[in-house]
Design a protein that fits this description.
352 residues; alpha/beta; Aldehyde Dehydrogenase, Chain A, domain 2; six-stranded mixed sheet; five-stranded parallel sheet; 15% strand
């Protein structure tokens, strides 16, 4: 199977996925094998949000819509244009996937297959319904993928390299267990936003998407704000009001009530608006329904601080602060070339 075949297969997968979005779920006549797969995938989406209360249908469809936009021929070709695939010797690549947001392991899955390797995927029990079904669709549109995709719930065996995503604690286990294999080991990271006080209402509304999408469970979700001394949070609270209905989601509301009770009993200072609490704290990882904030005195000192903390940070959301910043509202819409932890997955796979 050559590279063009692999590109075409993922392009067709993107076209299939494009039928499922928050705007509408609608079967199209121009999609290959749709009679076999459309209704079945609708059922898998239903199973996914019944199995995991955090996988609200709106979030599942948002993830699918994002991937359908990424999986176009022009997008894939732009992504792989600067890599050399000619000397790749197909190997077995194990992927240990997280399950915090829907299809969080898809980019690794795509990278392994587009580079010409075979994939052995060990999924999280929290996110196990969508990817095997999409893999089966890939095998139908490109039969040469058969035998190249394996899902396992048991011990990983017969692999040449590994990509593993987990917590800081599991990363230590991964590093020991896979010490003799080429590997990418991902740990906890969080995303931050740098505010100046000059943001527009529209920018702050967009920032609310970075905070609340997927209930804040992703490493690309903003969990920490850096604000200038004397910052007035009134405009911020007005901007995030767009997401006020999230408090009606039971699991989110339970976390809000619990964390609020902890803060009050501990006599911590915090501000809240009925669905979000903000608390001054130096940590990057905040609990659900909470965003931490920290004051800064000057931009240069903050730039140095974030540079020194780069191993803990996934994204920096800002406007004119850093060359690698992400615009407000775009953290959950990464491009194919936006690699997790800044590690070039595709280059790793071409060299391993």
């Amino acid at each position: 199977m050559n590279l063009n075949q692999r590109i075409t297969a993922f392009e067709k997968l993107g076209q299939f996925i494009s039928q499922f979005s928050n705007q509408k779920i609608e079967k199209r006549d121009d999609i290959e094998h749709n009679d076999l797969f459309f209704d079945g995938f609708k059922h898998q989406i239903k199973l996914a949000y019944e199995h995991n209360d955090w996988f609200k249908k709106e979030n599942l469809l948002f993830a699918l819509e994002s991937w359908s936009k990424s999986l176009t021929k022009s997008n894939i070709e732009h992504w792989i244009n600067n890599y050399n695939f000619k000397l790749v010797e197909p190997k077995n690549i194990a992927i240990i996937m997280a399950g915090n947001i829907p299809l969080v392991g898809f980019h690794d899955f795509l990278s392994v297959l587009i580079s010409g390797h075979k994939v052995i995927a060990k999924q999280s029990s929290n996110d196990k319904h969508l990817l095997p079904f999409l893999a089966k669709y890939l095998e139908y549109v490109e039969p040469e993928f058969k035998g190249r995709i394996t899902f396992t719930e048991g011990k990983l065996e017969d692999f040449d390299a590994v990509i593993a995503t987990g917590s800081n604690n599991t990363a230590r286990y991964f590093e020991y267990y896979f010490k003799d294999k080429p590997s990418i080991i991902r740990k906890n990271r969080n995303s931050v936003a740098v505010l100046t006080g000059n943001e527009t209402h529209e920018q702050l509304e967009a920032l609310s998407d970075d905070i609340f999408r997927y209930y804040g469970l992703g490493c690309r979700n903003v969990s920490k704000l850096f604000v200038p001394k004397g910052y007035d949070f009134q405009a911020f609270f007005k901007g995030v009001y767009k997401w006020h209905n999230i408090i009606h989601e039971n699991k989110y509301a339970n976390n809000y009530d619990y964390n609020k009770a902890v803060y009050l009993m501990s006599e911590f200072d915090m501000l809240e608006n009925g669905f979000l609490m903000i608390k001054e704290d130096e940590s990057f990882a905040s609990p659900i329904a909470t965003v931490f904030y920290e004051y800064y005195s000057d931009v240069e000192s903050l730039q140095n601080k974030l540079k020194n903390e780069s191993e803990n940070i996934q994204c920096i959301v800002a406007n004119g602060f850093d060359k690698s910043e992400i615009p407000f509202g775009k953290t959950q819409e990464p491009q194919l070339w936006d690699y997790a932890d800044g590690v070039d997955t595709l280059q790793f796979l071409l060299n391993c």
